[in-house]
Amino acid sequence: MAALKKPLINILARSLLGAALAFSANTVLAEEKLPVQQQTQVAGYYRMMLGDYEITALYDGYVQIESKLLKGITANDVNKLFQAMYVNDSNGVQTAVNAFLVHTNKHLILIDAGAESCFGDTLGSIENNLRAAGYTPEQVDTVLLTHLHPDHACGITKDGKRIFTNATLYVAQAEAGYWLSKKSEEQAPEAGKAVFKMAQQAVAPYQAANKFKTFTDRLPINEIQLMASPGHTPGHMSYLVTSKGNSLLIWGDIVHSHALQFARPEVAIEYDSDSEQAVTSRKKILAYAAKNKLWVAGAHLPFPGLGHVRANDNGYTWVPVEYSPILKKQN
After folding, report:
1. CB-based contacts of 135, cutoff 8 Å, min separation 6
2. Does residue 22 sit in helix, strand or coil?
3. Considering the entire predicted model, what is its pTM?
């Protein structure tokens, strides 16, 4: 029996040694083949179908908004709501800047255009993401701006030239009448004059090319309906797009903080031209979107900024879109 044990022990030892060596070799090999972390994000666009229309959300980047700019709410309530939504505001709240491309089969319409180079290097990606999404600036035939703040308007122009060379630019008359007015600029606080300059510089190349138009109560594009939503700016406009019974409300800056302003619509932001009017518009738009179960697209909602508004006992809840493939129609 003892004679049998020795060979068995030797076999077992050799097996264990072989396994250990193989494990060691595989570990070294795995370490050598392991790629470096990429630490980059995918292109900033997201697509969905709205009836027969194609909607593409485009990511321009982000800004950091300090919570002290939010008004009509206590610091304690801000902290509670931020914690409930896992929002980190230690360096300001990361806030997306989105634009939306609407393909109606008759028009290719860009609604808002991002900041280009007006607000630093965390913004300015609309053109690149438009191209990544399979389109070029030259293919856009219509640009609609919800308002003329730089993070929506500066992206139409680069180095004093039109980015969307074949597009007509549309802005609400009340909005253009304020931001493009030298009198309004002169009456504005010194700190706000730069916003007037940036709006005027963005629009100027389109004016020079006779590609700038204003509107009051309707657009010459039948696919788009208007919903006036003043307050954040004097002529802030939201756009309603409908195809085959499906509607999307592209509402610009109705909400800046998804963590606060759905739960507490009365919360305003320092950037509002008329805070009271902005709150009134927000309450009206939120109620309308929830009641009619609309799709919503927000310029400052977490990218892609698409989803629904759900009413609850105390306010509203944001229900973001779920990632979904695009199912191509069979010819």
Report:
1. 56, 101, 108
2. helix
3. 0.89
